[in-house]
Amino acid sequence: KVADITDAGRFHLHLQSRAAELQEVTEMMAEFGVAQGLNPGPAMVVRRGQKVAALFDDGSGPQWYRAVVLQVLGATDARVQYVDYGNTGRITTNKLAALELTYFAVPPCAIGARLALLRMPALDAEYGNDAACYLNDMVWGRTLECVFHTKAVGEDVEVSLLEPQEASESKGAEKDDAKAPSSVAEEMVLAGLATLKKTAAADARGLEEATDLLERMQTAQAEARRERRGQWRFGDLPEDDDDAVERARARRRDERGGGLNALREMAQGVAGGVRARLCAYF
């Protein structure tokens, strides 16, 4: 299952094979909460990279979670990542507590991942928010099959997320079409919200599942381009240079927007660079 979505290009996964570890950590932190209490305490002095316990309320009440400090923000705030779910947030340091390293004996339960073979628009780019929301609608709360393409890309793995085989077979029976399970990547390409990397063919070589997926995504991309969906709405994008794609998108925004870019720059100055919030996931 997807545990957190950063944007269309990055998310965190919970693997069924590690469900017992997540349950162990959940019970361990619940016991910590009983001993510690669930109310904020005195402000804690923290440093970047420090492993701590952090309060978080998912709507059912505050609970303590394992976390790591990503950034110290003045004397009273810090940005942390909840390592068993992947989400990050700004928090006052009175909602942090020291946590013995034995609590981190179990590795983080959330795995950073990206959809393989795809180039995604950044969250603040044209169609970026649309792509992230589309991804959320397809995956949130669902159990999906995961195919690993790489061991790691930085701290992330590259994966394909597929509809469970039984669900695909059920749909295939209804449509009299028992094809391979549909993939999240294929659906995003078909909607025009993602495009194939120029290295996709080389990246897929040697992995049977990836080769099959690539062929289906090439067909989906051809249809999205032909039907002018999503990013293809205003014309073809250059395919041979990822930077050229971004430059083409920027030119189209300038041509359509006129003075809109100037207004955006003014708004950014007023807002102090605060990013627009992504659609609510939780």
Explain what you see:
There is one protein chain. The protein has helices at residues 19-36, 128-139, 165-175, 184-190, 200-204, 208-226, 242-257, 260-271, and strands spanning 2-7, 10-13, 51-57, 62-73, 77-82, 88-92, 96-98, 111-115, 118-119, 145-148, 157-162, 195-196. The chain is an alpha+beta fold and 282 residues long. A hairpin with a 5-residue loop joins strand 5 and strand 6 (88-92).
Can you lay out the helices and strands and say which pair or pack?
Layout: E1 2-7, E2 10-13, H1 19-36, E3 51-57, E4 62-73, E5 77-82, E6 88-92, E7 96-98, E8 111-115, E9 118-119, H2 128-139, E10 145-148, E11 157-162, H3 165-175, H4 184-190, E12 195-196, H5 200-204, H6 208-226, H7 242-257, H8 260-271
Order of SSEs: EEHEEEEEEEHEEHHEHHHH
Main beta sheet: strand number and arrangement? Answer: 5 strands, mixed
Give the overall pLDDT as a whole number. 83
Low-confidence stretches: 172-178, 255-282
Helix content: 25-40%
The number of E-state strands comes to 12
Provide the spatial order of strands within the biggest beta sheet: 1-2-8-11-10
Number of helical runs?
A: 8
Q: What structural class results from the helix and strand content?
A: alpha+beta
State which percent range the strand residues make up: 15-25%
**How big is the Rg?**
21 Å
Regarding quaternary structure, what we see is single chain
Distance between the termini: 14 Å
Shape call: elongated
Write a concise synopsis of the structure shown.
This protein has 8 helices and 12 strands. The model is unreliable at 172-178 and 255-282 (pLDDT under 50). With 282 residues, the protein is of the alpha+beta class.
